[in-house]
Write a structure and sequence with these properties.
heterodimer, A: alpha+beta, Alpha-Beta Plaits, two-stranded antiparallel sheet, 5 helices, 14% helix, globular, B: alpha/beta, Rossmann fold, Dimethylsulfoxide Reductase, domain 2, Barwin-like endoglucanases, 3 domains, six-stranded mixed β-sheet, 25 helices, 30 strands, 30% helix
């Protein structure tokens, strides 16, 4: 997200979001980039036709002369990507670093991502490198959404433990009990 | 600077008065902050306009020991942004938020552009002549009155090898004091001492490129996701290749979240846990007896020692379930290849060296070291944590990681520097001991460079009092740090990108930093300042450097035959190869990415040493009065004492102030709500910070990150008890209690 601001066309404003999924439960964070839908709901619902999709499948940020700041796109996007920016009365969202990708560079976020949780490349490559599977089709109620950007799905997620208590001895008194403390050093 | 009666305190020091008398700071915190920061920089110089004629300078990040390659975007002698450097093999373009935003320390409103001299109401700008003369007078007067060792110097491990070398030489040749140490004393020394004891050399054994080839990885006390973010990719590539990951930490850090096995160790119990894992390995036959016999010494004693660290007993000490201890041994013991990595979590203890050696036993017992995908490494926290400790700015070492008490080593360096061996100072005091000696009146003057002890040394109220007691404090720095606010003279120095030089990364790779810009205003390159001081002290001939390369060639020659041998390196060779691993003893030598190949260790007999230690409690354990463990560490968006990163707006926004992490069970017991401001209290002091209620920390432990100064400084609470060997302070465990304010 810090790097997104640095892209030449973004000028200090991040077009992606980084969220703690639930900090009280876990340190897990999730970057939210535009999924670049084949049939983008944001563009479909735009009354001013301000959101354009180019031939390469990139769904662009709103066009300044056209955007009327109505936020239809914000409500329509199933992934929660577009953000309405009140100061400029315009919707802004990830355009896959069009200025970089159109000249053969990777998007800024995927270039710098320290864990490569964001990866820019071909689906076949990442499928070979990772144990997870890239997914590009999502079901939202009756709506099927196909995307250019893929999400890595876990191969097996039988159970996820978040609370540190799950990793501690069951017998242990979880909260410091002053009368018990003396035995801890032994 | 002494606290004196009011009228004396108003007398500004003058030449030849015989006593330097300075005012106690009369400016309140607010005024100091208005004048010198920290203020927040959000935009590159000139705003977000696109600069068409920028040059890109291939250099490295100024922060942690990974030293990611980065290209700084330079326009009109100003750093205005960055571009990823995808060809550099270690990070391949990847960066953490600190690296992405580091360019915002350039063209910063807080930047010191001229030397400062303390006055009765703050500071005034001064000429270099006046600032340097005043410093030299103070050095001469204090040393004449109280002896040479009464003037101390403190360096830093975020600076280049060239500066580290020069600081050590300056202190011993020009100041002629034994009391020269550095802030790596707060960082790497437990691991360094343990490495020397076990392997006979102080360096990570393997390049990081071995990590993805490992089939089992133990990560002990290393918050990799936040402190060395790029290494997350290495760990996760190992996982994709089928590795099992074991993480040992009192908190479920981001890397712990995705581990195969997480051991939530109770703070201060690390050596017991390592002993417990080794116990299971021996019982189950997962030790390589042939390797132990041929390549090591001391295993029998360790075997006897860990005999009584049964899983049940180890569980009772460490708070880790016996089943998890057994499972860790099952993952580690029979693995085909393996890497063990640790960092400050096991090192910042009054038994830090014992903890490290106990974990090294797990590596030696398997014989899996010195091979592709198999070995060991301690991850350096500071930019030049590795090189910063090799070239002589430690109180107990001379260049080339030589021992200051070894007669041959002393003679070599004395001859090299053209001084008499008898004149070369011996072992001096370590960083924390220097502050103890200031308290005791034995040290009266201090010169610091890129070190902010007021924020970084435990028991900050004592540190502050010690700074006040000094008759002279000089600080070389680019921003006015919290320590600098107490200085008599501030010498405006240089940022990393304003000087050329080398640093040695956490994997032992010496890389080249390029100068991107020149220092702004009248600020000067740090080593020019030291050379000038040496000249004024009468040692001009010993510091004949025109460019950084002059210093590098001298330091490389000084390391010849030493443990950390750089003598086959040149700037051109380092640049061409994108870094050279030491030892590199000759110009046609390619460097040594992996140590201990064929099981040859660096002790004279070629054998590694096992060292076994009975678990002993931390310097201060919990009790009825202070029933909770207090532990400290970092967050991803801040670096060390924050002198740089607390001035960068987007980084501050990411984590604006210290929070006290606690488990909901503990919070419920105390009646504390998320976000409520609580008082964290220890025997040293108390701070008031918001509670952050999370299920990722042991219920008997609270955590506060340490990057902040003043009344929110975690180091007001920590315990200045030192490891007997490494003299590292115990940041990672002391006893506290939590109080509600209402």
């Amino acid at each position: 997200m810090q790097a997104c601001m640095e892209c030449d066309t973004h000028r200090g404003r991040s077009m992606i979001h980084l969220e703690f999924v639930d900090r009280a439960m876990s340190t897990q964070t999730s970057p939210v980039v535009c999924m670049h839908c084949e049939d983008p709901a944001c563009a479909r619902v735009c009354p001013a036709d301000a959101i354009k999709q180019t031939e390469d499948g990139i769904v662009h940020s709103s066009l300044k002369p056209r955007c009327i700041g109505c936020s239809n796109c914000v409500l329509a996007c199933p992934f929660g990507v577009p953000h309405y920016v009140a100061q400029i009365d315009q919707m802004m969202k990830c355009d896959m670093c069009f200025d970089r990708t159109s000249i053969g560079k990777k998007p800024m976020c995927a270039t710098v991502c320290p864990s490569q949780a964001l990866y820019y490349g071909r689906a076949e490559d990442i499928e070979r490198m990772r144990v997870e599977t890239p997914i590009s089709q999502f079901q939202f109620g009756y709506q099927t959404v196909k995307t250019k950007v893929r999400l890595m799905s876990s191969p097996s997620a039988d159970q996820l433990d978040f609370d540190i208590l799950s990793f501690m001895p069951e017998s242990e008194d979880q909260v410091p009990d002053i009368t018990e403390l003396a035995i801890w050093g032994n | 600077m002494p606290a004196l009666p009011a009228e004396a305190a108003r007398t500004e020091s003058g030449k030849g008065t015989g006593a330097i008398v300075m005012a106690t700071p009369t400016l309140d915190e607010g005024t100091l902050t208005d004048r010198y920061g920290p203020r927040l920089n959000y935009e590159p110089h000139g705003g977000w306009t696109e600069q068409s004629d920028c040059t890109l300078v291939k250099t490295h990040c100024c922060f942690c020991g990974v030293q990611c390659g980065i290209q700084l975007k330079v326009h009109d002698n100003k750093v205005v942004g960055f571009e990823p450097w995808e060809e550099f093999p270690v990070n391949r373009g990847m960066l953490c938020p600190k690296g992405v935003k580091r360019y915002l320390q350039n063209e910063h409103p807080d930047r010191l552009l001229k030397p400062l001299i303390r006055t009765h109401d703050g500071f005034r700008e001064a000429t270099w002549d006046e600032a340097l003369d005043r410093t030299v007078e103070a050095i001469r007067r204090i040393q004449a009155q109280y002896g040479r060792d009464a003037f101390a110097m403190l360096g830093g491990a975020s600076m280049t090898n060239e500066k580290a070398y020069l600081i050590g030489k300056f202190a011993r040749v020009a100041l002629r004091t034994a009391n020269i140490d550095y802030n790596g004393r707060l960082c790497m020394v437990s691991a360094g001492a343990a490495n020397k004891m076990a392997f006979g050399v102080d360096r990570a054994a393997n390049p990081w490129s071995d990590i993805p080839m490992a089939k089992a990885i133990i990560i002990a006390g290393a918050n990799i996701g936040e402190c060395f973010p790029i290494l997350t990719d290495y760990i996760w590539r190992a996982r994709d290749n089928g590795a099992k990951i074991v993480v040992i930490d009192p908190r479920m850090t981001p890397i712990a979240r995705t581990a195969d096995l997480f051991l939530p160790v109770r703070p201060g119990r690390d050596s017991a846990l390592a002993n417990g894992i080794l116990h299971v390995m021996i019982k189950r036959g997962w030790v390589d007896h042939a390797f132990i016999e041929d390549n090591t010494l001391g295993f029998e004693a360790v075997e006897r020692l860990v005999e009584h660290y049964t899983p049940q007993r180890t569980e009772a000490i460490t708070g880790v379930p016996a089943a998890s201890i057994i499972r860790a041994a099952e993952i580690w013991g029979p693995a085909e290849t393996s890497m063990l990595l640790h960092a400050r979590g096991v090192e910042h203890h009054s038994k830090g060296v014992e903890n490290c050696l106990s974990y090294i036993n797990l590596v030696l017992a398997t014989g899996r070291i010195g091979k592709p995908g198999s070995g060991y490494g301690t991850i350096t926290g500071q930019g030049n944590g590795q090189g910063g400790r090799e070239h002589g700015q430690r109180c107990n070492q001379l260049p080339g990681a030589r021992d200051i008490e070894n007669p041959e080593h002393r003679q070599f360096i004395a001859d090299f520097w053209h001084v008499a061996e008898s004149e070369l100072p011996r072992t001096g005091l370590t960083s924390c001991e220097i502050f103890d000696a200031i308290e005791a009146g034995k040290i009266r003057g201090l010169l610091t460079i890129s070190f902010n002890p007021l924020v970084s040394i435990p028991d900050a109220d004592r540190t502050r009092a010690a700074l006040e007691k000094l008759e002279y404090l000089g600080c070389i720095d680019f921003f006015l740090s919290e320590t600098g606010r107490h200085a008599d003279v501030v010498l405006a120095g240089s940022l990393q990108e304003e000087d050329e030089g080398t640093v040695t990364t956490g994997e032992g790779r010496c890389v080249k930093l390029q100068r991107s810009v020149t220092p702004p205003g009248d600020a000067r390159v740090d080593w020019h300042i030291l050379s000038d001081l040496a000249t004024r002290l009468g040692y001009k001939d010993y510091f004949p450097y025109a460019i950084s390369d002059d210093i590098f060639r001298e330091l490389a020659a000084a390391t010849k035959g030493g443990s950390a041998d750089y003598s086959g390196m040149t700037y051109a060779k380092i640049e061409k190869n994108m870094g050279i691993f030491w030892p590199c003893p000759s110009f046609n030598h390619p460097g040594t990415p992996r140590l201990f190949e064929e099981g040859r260790f660096h002790h004279a007999d070629g054998k590694a040493r096992f060292h076994g230690y009975e678990y002993r409690p931390p310097g201060e354990d919990v009790d009825a009065e202070y029933p909770l463990f207090f532990t400290t560490g970092r967050v991803v968006s801040q670096y060390l004492s924050g002198t740089q990163t607390r001035r960068i707006g987007p980084l501050v926004d990411q984590y604006p102030e210290p929070l006290c992490e606690m488990h909901p069970i503990l919070a419920a017991r105390l009646g504390i709500l998320d976000g409520e401001i609580v008082r964290v209290k220890t025997r040293r002091g108390s701070i008031e910070v918001p509670a952050q209620i999370v299920r990722t920390i042991r219920p008997d432990t609270v955590f506060v990150p340490y990057h902040w100064p003043g009344r929110k400084s975690a180091n007001l609470l920590t315990n200045r008890v030192l490891d007997p060997i490494s003299k590292i302070p115990e940041y990672k465990v002391c006893a506290c209690r939590i109080e509600r304010l209402t």
